[in-house]
Structure formats: C-alpha cells, structure tokens
Amino acid sequence: xxxxxxxxxxxxxxxxxxxxxxxxxxxxxxxxxxxxxxxxxxxxxxxxxxxxxxxxxxxxxxxxxxxxxxxxxxxxxxxxxxxxxxxxxxxxxxxxxxxxxxxxxxxxxxxxxxxxxxxxxxxxxxxxxxxxxxxxxxxxxxxxxxxxxxxxxxxxxxxxxxxxxxxxxxxxxxxxxxxxxxxxxxxxxxxxxxxxxxxxxxxxxxxxxxxxxxxxxxxxxxxxxxxxxxxxxxxxxxxxxxxxxxxxxxxxxxxxxxxxxxxxxxxxxxxxxxxxxxxxxxxxxxxxxxxxxxxxxxxxxxxxxxxxxxxxxxxxxxxxxxxxxxxxxxxxxxxxxxxxxxxxxxxxxxxxxxxxxxxxxxxxxxxxxxxxxxxxxxxxxxxxxxxxxxxxxxxxxxxxxxxxxxxxxxxxxxxxxxxxxxxxxxxxxxxxxxxxxxxxxxxxxxxxxxxxxxxxxxxxxxxxxxxxxxxxxxxxxxxxxxx
Length: 483
Prior knowledge:
- With 483 residues, this protein is of the alpha/beta class.
- It has 16 helices and 18 strands.
C-alpha cells in the first residue's frame, strides 16, 4: 500500500483533504508524519493558496490558487475546491460529484429550498461551488422535487406528530463476503435467534407503553436486517401481532418487510406478511449471475429467484423491491447489465442500484483492504439509467458511500406510486425514527434546531441478549425524555 503524507499548514484540513484525495486515488494510506512514498503540501502565501503533490516514483505538480483576500481562516470548503481543481489536473479527470464526499447530497438541496433559494441559485451552488457535474446536479434537483410530495410539511420539513419505526432482525443464515453489517449467523439449533426474538418482543411492548402516552403517530414501519425472514412463519406472525397489540399502526403510509435472501421465504411467511398489512416487500438477488454470487459467498440455486418472485406476486403485495450491486466479484459492465435486464423482466415496481462499498467488517475489506477496482465509467452509468427510464422507472432517492467504484452513488428507482417512503424520510433526516432491536439506531429530530440526535443500540446479538435489560432500559429512558 502506498503512503501519502499530508504536510498541511492548516492541520484542520486533514479530514477534508483525506476524503477528497481518496475519491481520486482510493487505497492510498494518508499520514501526517513519518516515512511516506509521496507528500501533499498546502501553504498560504498572501492572496494565494499553494498546493504541491510529489511522489517518489511519479510526477510533481505545484499550483497557486488566487483568493479574494489574505485573511484566514477561509472556509474549509474553499480549500477543498482548490484541492479538487488541483487533483483534477494531476489525475487528468473530473469527478461527477465534484468536491462532495457526504452521504446525503439530496438533503443539501432540501436545505437550500427551505432557506428560500431559487432553483437557479441551487443549481449554481452545486455546479460552480461544489464542482458537481450537470448530470448529477440535475439528478439531485429532480429527486428533491419528487421527494417533496412525500415529506410532511416540506417547507418546515417535519410534522412533529409523525414518526417512523424500524425493527431490526440482525441475523442471517450465512454472511456474504461483501457484507459489513454486524449480523449474526443463526446457529444450527436456532437458539441465538429464539433468545433474540423473545427479547425483541419485550422491547416492542416496552416501547409501545412509552408511545401510547404520547400524541405521536407512526407514519412508516420498516422491518429490516440482517434477514428478517430467517424467522419462522409462527415467529413472524407473533412479531407482527406484537407490533399491532403494542402500537397504533392505523395511520401507516407504508409497511415494509425485508425478505432479502430468496431462500428464506415461503408461502406461509408471505401469507403472514400479507395478512398483517405489509405492502412493500424487498427481495434482493444482488446479482443474477451465478458465478458472481458464488464468488462472494452468497448461495445460489437455479431458477429460485424467478420462482420466489412469482410466489410474491401471487399474494398481490403493492410493491416489490429488488436490489442489485455494481462491482461484485469480477463482473464486467455487460454482466451487470444482463442482471439488470433479467430483474426488469421479473417486473418489480422498485429497483435499487447499489455500488459495492468496501467497508470495515466485510471479508472483502479484510482480504483486500480498501483497494477499489477501476470503475465502469460514465457510459455505464448512463446505460443503467437509460434502461430503467425506458421501463418507466424514475429515481426517487439517493445516497453515497466511501470506497465505491467511480466514487458513485446508490440510487433507488421506482415506478410512480411505488417509491419507498421510509427510505426518503431516512435520507431527508426530518422525521424521528424509533429503533427497536439490536443495531436499530433511533433518530430523534428537533425541528427547532433542524438537528438529529442518534440513539444507538449495541449491534451484536450476543451482547444484546446478555445485557438486554440494561441496554433497553437506557435506550427507553432517552426515548421517554424525547417523547
């Protein structure tokens, strides 16, 4: 692994420079002292910011950037803009997302809308200040406009009486190589699952007792994982019955169940979900290419996904979501596009395109580090968008992660009327979410400050089981104060 030392006159720029440099040259280790293969320096001299990049075995580049005055401190984002222009010249390429390295760029658009900015002003901000391409700027504006219809009181951002609910089942039948979630493998006897399930029902009841004393209404309900459908049909029925008994679900706009792994669903489980009012079901092949799935440790069986989709459709759920991941295994662009065509042929109403992100906790990260393979290029991105658009799918939500091919984005596409409302609200961060279960993070929204307070729950199922009373009591105290 190559090592690059930052020699910065302003040490506080380290984080910003690291984020942006990784977008151009992922896999390089950044340090601020000691031996290194290269040096990136920043100095300010009067009205100029001077940047220099030198590698022991490569070219050297020095550029001076003019500023309007000699006063410091300049905004960190201004330095980041200079660094972007500098690295664009050094590497001879542009990034579609410019200087933006954050997860939620659509939220930035929504913030400017709330502040009264015009579409032209917002467009100029992203194009000129953040160096975002015209295509991605247009995409952000389009998605923000679509999401406005789903966000209560969008100008004030929040309806203080509405909340979302997330119930976490962080257990799986096995763990795929790319997975970074702290999910637990269900043991052969299912004892860890059974113990977790029993505790989860208790937490649901206790949470319901707190919510019943408030005037809040549950807007969306999402049961996620892990793989929630590792539960048996009997357990799934008990879970959903407990939610109905403990909470008022009469005002739900959306009820989602992640089925995830196709081998974990059957007719009995789907009937339970349908009988309890689930409208949106997620069934995620990740790839339709058997060689790809086998290379990342994900089980595959010929014809299974097609069979399970037909089974799901026979129950008449309103929306079927299917996920695909760009960059798995040694897939080529053509391999992925064949997967996309195969999924489109199965006629889901919602398709999410993820880009593989090399994250801590995944076997891929442990084996290969954060080295990201060369991207597929902008032509590939446009081909994906074109094929989905041609079939009536429109982008409705977007988020970004680090260490992805081409520094790309994850985008949810849906046919009109089948957008994932919970996803929209989570990215907008303007409604509180109550998290139940291990790894279920609560988001407590304060409309006065427009800030989110996170309420974390231990992710590990074993720890959750062993320290259940302590963990849940601490979390419920926080929720109770908020409510």
